Amino acid sequence: MTITHVQFLTLPVADHARARDFYVGKLGFEALVDRRTPEGGHFVMVAPKGAKTGVVLTDQQVTGIGGGPRHFQLQTTDLDADVAALRAAGVEVAEPEE
Known about the structure:
It is a single chain. Helices cover 21% and strands 34% of the residues. The protein contains two helices and five strands, in the order E-H-E-E-E-E-H. It has a five-stranded mixed beta sheet with strand order 2-3-4-1-5.
């Protein structure tokens, strides 16, 4: 495998504005991406200054234990080989995007 680091993790939050204020205002993280989604939600990626890994805050409805969408994205130097190796190991991998 040629995975170099975790690029970001998605964290569903019940109160998007409050979560963003906490990470940016209290912890001093940078807001790397801040945009509306086609579904009408809000997508914000925050990270400590200079970090390789970010946290994506999503304001989608969180229900039940561990509810809400999860996303785990990795950085690699050989996408095709790593996707093939992960799938061969039985890992469900979404279709890669540029």
